[in-house]
Task: structure prediction
Amino acid sequence: MDPAAGMVDKAVAVLANLATIPEGRNAIGQAGGIPVLVEVVELGSARGKENAAAALLQLCTNSGRFCSLVLQEGAVPPLVALSQSGTPRAKEKAQALLSYFRNQRHGGAGRR
Result:
């Protein structure tokens, strides 16, 4: 494995952990982390995609503003691809996020 790719995977794993707490979510959103996470979902390693999807799910289900930013970054096509061909955990997170987007679009409360 490319050492740089390993560092990206580790960094995204840290972001996924940070996304589980309010301060971490705010830091990720304010520091421009959303475009990076969407890029990792599209182009990252299997582990990176899995953790990026988990982080995006946390960001979206806890903030409508962050959810809008994720959608503006074009996250849907790579999430659809991930929901079909990722690791089991990545598929689960991608499917949950896509379901959340559908519920939001149709005026549903979504999940917390």
